[in-house]
Amino acid sequence: VLDSQYGMYVWPCAVVLAQYLWAHRRSLPGKRVLEIGAGVSLPGVVAARCGAQVILSDSEELPRCLQSCRSSCLMNHLPHVPVLGLTWGRVSLELLALAPIDIILGSDVFFDPKDFEDILTTIYFLLEKNPHAQFWTTYQVRSADWSIEALLYKWKLKSVHIPLHSFGADKEHLASSPLPGRHTIEMMIISLVQSDGT
Questions:
Q1: Three-state DSSP class for residue 56
Q2: What's the structural domain count of the chain?
Q3: 63: exposed, middle or buried (C-beta count within 10 Å: 0-12, 13-18, 19+)?
Q4: How many angstroms separate the CA atoms of 35 and 44, rounded?
């Protein structure tokens, strides 16, 4: 989805995650939601419009991405949604100060394998504050050897695959965003492996 007026490109993964949020909109009011690597922040905006208390974040080293978050909030009449600079893998004062989060959102954050562990250390830190929280993430399959299984095991995290057809996101033209056939989008929910062995 390209917004020509503002020159913002919304990646297909964000559209799929936004669709999942919309399908679960009745569970969102009052939930504390943090979107990481938000950029244009379509999923976070949808969550906020559905009644969640949303915080948007992107790398503190990417001021243009943080500006995109702010612009999206203004365009969608959400002037009070906070935008934080959070860099994956870095325990910052902003991260430490966050109240417990219920749902973490991340669309296409598993892009570069060198970032995978930094992402999961940040997710682990957030889940430790609220062991019932979940990380809802969509990603594009870019390589056959793409895997975070070993990292999930290392950080005592588990993942559940969410089939796209289960929330109507397997259509060719979802929200007028062409999901090119050769780009496989997947969704998973990551949570803590609970100490009771589940």
A1: strand
A2: 1
A3: exposed
A4: 6
pLDDT at 168: 83
- Reference 123, options 92, 148, 171, 157; nearest CA is 157
Asked whether the whole model's pTM tops 0.70, one would answer: yes
Structural domain includes residue 9: no
Indicate the helix (H) or strand (E) that contains 7: none
Q: CA-to-CA distance for 142 and 177, rounded, in angstroms?
A: 19
92 found inside a domain? yes
What single-letter amino acid sits at 24?
A: H
pLDDT of residue 140: 85
* Digit-coded pLDDT (tens) for 127-168: 999 999 999 999 988 777 778 999 999 999 999 999 988 988
**Host domain of residue 71:** 19-192
CATH code assigned at 88: 3.40.50.150
Whether 96 and 67 have beta carbons less than 8 Å apart is answered as: no
The closest alpha carbon to 119, from 74, 151, 96, 78, belongs to 151
Where helices occur in the chain by DSSP H, the ranges are 12-23, 42-49, 63-75, 93-97, 116-129, 149-154
Mean pLDDT for all residues in the chain: 86
Tokens of 186: 């997947």
Give CA–CA dist 83/59, Å, rounded.
Answer: 11
Q: What is the pLDDT of residues 73-122, one digit of tens each?
A: 898 899 899 999 999 999 899 899 999 999 999 999 998 889 999 999 99
